[in-house]
């Protein structure tokens, strides 16, 4: 399997996941303080929204790439 086919499949999977989930969250540690034996840290949860158009464009680009590679052979 060629690298181009693998990239096309990854684009298709990313597009489908973007359309299904629509957003993802991650946690990052924002502040940290040490007061003697105590350590304080604040964990902040961020949510990133994936636009529908980005999922559609990624899905179409992956499909077109896969189609172009398969037609070439």
Automatic annotation (TrEMBL):
Stretches that traverse the bilayer: 49-69
Keywords, ordered alphabetically: Membrane, Transmembrane, Transmembrane helix
The protein's name: LPXTG cell wall anchor domain-containing protein
Species per Swiss-Prot/TrEMBL record: Methylomonas methanica
């Amino acid at each position: 399997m060629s690298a181009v086919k693998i990239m096309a499949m990854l684009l298709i999977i990313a597009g489908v996941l973007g359309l299904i989930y629509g957003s993802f969250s991650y946690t990052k540690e924002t502040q940290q303080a040490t007061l003697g034996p105590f350590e304080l840290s604040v964990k902040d949860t961020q949510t990133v929204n994936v636009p529908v158009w980005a999922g559609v464009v990624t899905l179409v680009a992956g499909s077109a790439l896969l189609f172009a590679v398969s037609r070439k052979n």
